[in-house]
Amino acid sequence: MILRNSRCRIVPVGDGVILSGVYKGFRDLKKAKLIRKIPKIVAVQAEGSNALANAFRNKGEFPKINAKTVADSISVDVPRNGYHALKQLIEFSGDVCIVSDDEY
């Protein structure tokens, strides 16, 4: 996936906690009138640990997966903060990208 929009932000995602925190930071910056709009955020998940990406593409259902990836820091079966992270992606027109272990 080639991202041509320089205003796009990339966030690695496992549990969704960091992604939610990034969105909170941008919401706070907007509220303080330090930015005009929240940038597009792309959540990046490993192909073998892609519960959030699946939910994003399947209208919010988090199927149980057995995560297996070399990207151990973002490897989760069920994202602890998945529903909140998904809500933020949808609300602020974010996107999800899946990366294979070979691309890692």
Which quaternary structure do these chains form?
single chain
User: How does the overall form come out from the CA principal axes?
Assistant: globular
Gross CATH architecture: 3-Layer(aba) Sandwich
* Biggest sheet architecture: 3 strands, parallel
Task: Give the SSE layout.
Elements: E1 9-12, H1 17-31, E2 41-46, H2 51-57, H3 82-91, E3 95-99
Parallel strand pairs: 1-2, 2-3
Written account of the structure:
The chain is of the alpha/beta class and 104 residues long. It has a single domain (9-97), classed as 3-Layer(aba) Sandwich (Rossmann fold), CATH 3.40.50. It contains 3 helices and 3 strands. The chain has a 3-stranded parallel β-sheet, with helices on one face. Helix 1 links the parallel strand 1 (9-12) and strand 2 (41-46). It is globular, with a radius of gyration of 14 Å.
